[in-house]
Automatic annotation (TrEMBL):
Similarity section: Belongs to the class-III pyridoxal-phosphate-dependent aminotransferase family.
Record's keyword terms, sorted: Aminotransferase, Pyridoxal phosphate, Transferase
Record InterPro entries: Aminotrans_3, Aminotrans_3_PPA_site, PyrdxlP-dep_Trfase, PyrdxlP-dep_Trfase_major, PyrdxlP-dep_Trfase_small
PROSITE patterns: AA_TRANSFER_CLASS_3
PANTHER family in alphabetical order: AMINOTRANSFERASE, AMINOTRANSFERASE CLASS-III
Keyword RNA-binding: no
GO molecular function, one term: pyridoxal phosphate binding
Protein name (Swiss-Prot/TrEMBL): Adenosylmethionine-8-amino-7-oxononanoate aminotransferase
Cofactor(s) named in the record: pyridoxal 5'-phosphate
Gene3D superfamilies linked: Aspartate Aminotransferase, domain 1, Type I PLP-dependent aspartate aminotransferase-like (Major domain)
């Protein structure tokens, strides 16, 4: 085994201006990763909320090996392949009724681009060529490619490219928990949904093609959950103006929130769905757009979907996807995510009782976050200079726990950290995670004088 310390390593392949060189990873199993010096870390964020079924799953690895022995690449214009057909059928069975057409890609940004481009080509095919605007929310993250970045609400990521891309209209994410008004949560849900209608009217309803949102927020909002009233109202508004509703389930999908899709908690019926991350659980790069035939057929009849990627429907990636879905079923991982999510959320709430600078604990299943504040009553954020979210991540890392963090929320910035272990996590492992979180928060409070 090569054992090179991080200080000896040349920086040539690293684009990141890393504050902290991370060690070389050696191996991984279950919820754990080991570096080349033999140190074990708990993967408390499933990578970037990717490794839903945990590391080193033997059945998935064996299925991939079997596929590797047969064929790893056959171009889609030359051959269909069985894993892609199986995976499309299995995905459609798990998606809302009518989502029967699956278009494979290799990641989340590609899945979002595909939704946007199918929506546009559908509008052209049905004679609505004036529709092209895709409204999204701020803050949000939908990917790094220029089209996905246009709907991403994260200025630091999109500003450098503003002359080169089309910035799409944004409405605020439904940060109802921050509001200090006399409305109930359900009234706030309606208030935030109605902002979509206001934006549609301001933009000109005939020019609006789609609205894209994460049903349960990811890293950009810290597992933001809108009030129940938000979802039916959004659907109603989209229907009223003939606008397609795109659900970005790249992070919230494939069981992470305790249902197959985040939107399933509200029985949502979007028009297009973007999937990735947990779809092949990090065993291979894989993503997908799911669409109903009623949108796909006019596009095909008008000459075909003018879009595609070389690796779309790759047999090895799809074989990994099939095996991942089988393992999710065999091990009952969606139910486990729901159950363990409740346990972990309860632990985070207990930590918030101990540490008054935790102002909010939120999320569903194992997509959970805690937000730091300097005052719980007003939800005033901590000063930016403290860099509390990054210190939290680094101090947890020193203690053997990987978590994820950001400093974004509504109109005002705020620090949050996400705890999203693989869906195989056990009660005992949640105990270890919360014990490290407790130590880390104590050290953070001492260091930042919170
Ligand atoms: N959409 C959401 C909600 C995401 O969280 C991400 C990535 O974090 C993406 C899209 C982009 O996915 P990828 O990085 O695989 O391109």
């Amino acid at each position: 085994m090569q054992n090179t310390s991080s200080t000896q390593r040349p920086p040539s392949h690293l684009f990141y201006q890393s504050r902290l060189r991370r060690p070389l990873v050696d191996r991984a199993e279950g919820i754990y990763l080991w570096d080349q010096e033999g140190r074990r870390m708990i993967d408390g964020s499933s990578g970037a909320m990717v490794v839903n079924i945990g590391h080193g799953n033997r059945n998935v690895l064996d299925a991939m090996k079997r596929q590797m022995d047969r064929v790893t690449f056959a171009y889609r214009l030359h051959f269909e392949n069985e894993p892609a057909e199986d995976l499309a059928r299995m995905a459609a069975e798990r998606l809302p009724e009518g989502m029967d057409r699956i278009f494979f890609v290799s990641g989340g940004s590609e899945a979002v681009e595909s939704c946007i481009k199918l929506a546009r080509q559908w509008a052209l095919a049905v004679g609505q060529s004036e529709r092209w605007k895709v409204i999204s929310r701020f803050p949000s993250y939908h990917g790094g490619t220029l089209g996905a970045l246009g709907v991403t609400g994260y200025a630091a990521l999109s500003d450098p490219f503003s002359p080169m891309m089309r910035e799409m209209p944004k409405i605020p994410a439904p940060t109802a928990y921050l509001d200090r008004d006399n409305l109930t949560m359900e009234q706030r849900g309606i208030k935030y949904a109605d902002m979509l209608e206001e934006k549609i009217l301001a933009e000109g309803p005939e020019s609006v093609l789609a609205f894209i949102m994460e049903p349960i927020g990811g890293a950009s909002t810290g597992a933001l959950v809108a009030p129940d009233s938000y979802f039916p109202r959004i659907r109603e508004i989209c229907d009223r103006y003939g606008i397609l509703l795109i659900h970005d389930e790249v992070m919230s999908g494939v069981g992470r929130t305790g249902k197959f899709l985040g939107g399933d908690h509200w029985n949502c019926k979007p028009d297009l769905i973007a999937l990735s991350k947990g779809f092949a659980s990090g065993y291979c790069p894989l993503g997908a757009m799911a669409a109903p035939s009623r949108l796909v057929k006019p596009v095909l009849d008008a000459g075909g979907f003018q879009h595609g990627f070389t690796y779309a429907g790759n047999p090895l990636a799809c074989a990994a996807g099939v095996a991942v879905l089988n393992e999710i079923d065999r091990l009952g991982l969606i139910d486990n995510a729901a159950r363990m999510g409740e346990v972990l959320k309860g632990e985070l709430e207990r930590l918030s009782e101990r540490f008054p600078f935790i102002g909010d604990v939120r999320g569903k299943g194992l997509l959970l976050a805690a937000e730091f504040v300097s005052d719980r009553e007003t939800m005033k954020p901590l000063p930016k200079e403290l860099n509390a979210h990054q210190r939290m991540v680094d101090m947890a890392y020193e203690r053997g726990l990987i978590i994820y963090s950001r400093r974004t929320r509504g109109g005002v910035e705020g620090d949050h950290f996400l705890v999203c272990p693989p869906m195989i996590v056990t009660n005992e492992e949640i105990g270890s995670i919360t014990s490290i979180l407790g130590d880390t928060l104590e050290a953070l409070a001492a260091e930042l004088d919170l």
